[in-house]
């Protein structure tokens, strides 16, 4: 039983705050166009990488993927509001692993969340 002064302690199911992803390096130097192409390919095929399966769940899964895409493309405060409002459960604070309210898993690669350390200018 809690009281007015109670607070969540370590280990409680409090929502995780989204944090900036750790720096990453692509195996080879990569241009902005190549990075954008990788991101487009991921988002086009994302429903095959997680979420709920079945026709009756396709709308809910698309909603979660759309929310994750939006969250990946904005600053942290707005990303937090997006995941909170859509019921996304953040397992990894950098958004690489999330779940929906029914427990379906959604995994995001680093390249859709942040810039690589070896991004090069196109010549």
From TrEMBL:
DC-UbP/UBTD2 N-terminal domain segment(s): 16-122
Signal sequence, start to end: none
Region (Disordered): 1-30
Pfam families per the UniProt record, alphabetical: UBD (PF16455)
Protein name: Ubiquitin domain-containing protein
